[in-house]
Write a structure and sequence with these properties.
Layout: E1 4-7, H1 13-24, E2 28-33, H2 37-47, E3 50-53, H3 59-73, E4 78-81, H4 96-124, E5 127-132, H5 135-139, H6 145-165, E6 170-177, H7 183-186, H8 190-197, H9 209-220, E7 231-234
Parallel strand pairs: 1-2, 1-4, 2-3, 4-5, 5-6, 6-7
Helix pairs in contact: 1-9, 3-4, 4-6
The structure holds acetoacetyl-coenzyme A (CAA).
Acetoacetyl-coenzyme A binds near residues 86, 89, 134, 135 and 143.
């Protein structure tokens, strides 16, 4: 059965692969984006998926954006919190601005997005929430105190909310991707990637966005109602915590 889904950061990188996979699975998808209008329009033309612009770090913008999606596609039954940013710096060089930007966008957005859809999911007795965390929230990463803190916070958020949703037919799960071949990863210094990251990935390559999208499709299925509060690692064997 097709359901209404929102994918934040859904027009690029891992999010674009998730939006496409959910559409292919028969769902009505709204892909949210924050800034890159050109990429978002190209994505809409290529896929036929509706795109909606708002900043997930802003509470009021999320409320309004979700209302606009619901008006076009109906009540949100699937929410994939995928939007995220990096502002990598060693801690001794990390600014307050870079700390707050990452915490607000990557972790604050979970509150901003989940809160407006939660009451409806409870009333209807069905919901699927998937939070895209990261291997670096599980193990920590040099140069990513802000990002690792936000991503670890996403896992705690997932577990607590899963407990609250359990009796209401709402599942809340996290996926922790490892290093995936997207702009976020290719923006890293090539030397760091070659010297410190790639040698640590047992499968010997970066992951593909579609390899994360498969996991999302699994978790949001009607048949996945017994899987909640889980953290699914997809990292090529890099971390098995
Ligand atoms: N492991 C071990 N050593 C590392 C390292 C690592 N992962 N990263 C950096 N270092 C070392 C460097 O080799 C360097 O050592 P020397 O001084 O001996 O040469 C030292 O730490 C300082 O590093 P830089 O010279 O690079 O310092 P910088 O201030 O110029 O840059 C940085 C710091 C911006 C954090 C840069 O190192 C960097 O971008 N690192 C990668 C951080 C990272 O993994 N980001 C993940 C992005 S992708 C993502 O976030 C998606 C996801 O969920 C997985």
């Amino acid at each position: 059965m097709g359901r209404t889904a929102i994918v934040t950061g859904g027009t690029r990188g891992i999010g674009a692969a998730i939006s496409k996979a959910l559409k292919e699975a028969g769902h009505q998808v709204a892909a949210n984006y924050a800034g890159n209008e050109e990429k978002a329009n190209a994505f809409r033309e290529e896929t036929g998926i509706s795109v909606f612009k708002w900043d997930v770090s802003e509470e009021a913008a999320c409320r309004e954006g979700i209302a606009a999606v619901e008006e076009e596609l109906g009540p949100v039954e699937i929410l994939v919190n995928n939007a995220g940013i990096t502002r990598d710096a060693m801690f001794h060089k990390l600014s307050g601005e870079a700390w707050r930007a990452v915490i607000d966008t990557n972790l604050g957005s979970l509150f901003n997005m989940c809160r407006p859809v939660w009451d409806g999911m409870r009333e209807r007795g069905f919901g699927r929430i998937v939070n895209i965390s990261s291997i670096n929230g599980q193990k920590g990463q040099m140069g990513q105190v802000n990002y690792s803190a936000a991503k670890a916070g996403e896992i705690g958020f997932t577990r607590a909310l899963a407990l609250e949703g359990a009796r209401k037919g709402i599942t809340v799960n996290a996926i922790c991707p490892g290093y995936i071949a997207t702009e976020m990863v290719t923006a890293m210094p090539q030397e760091v990637l070659d010297k410190h990251i790639l040698p640590q990935i047992p499968v010997g390559r970066l992951g593909e966005p579609e390899e994360i999208a498969r996991a999302v499709v699994f978790l949001v299925a009607d048949e996945a109602g017994f899987v909640t509060g889980s953290t699914l690692s997809a990292n090529g064997g890099q971390y098995m915590g």
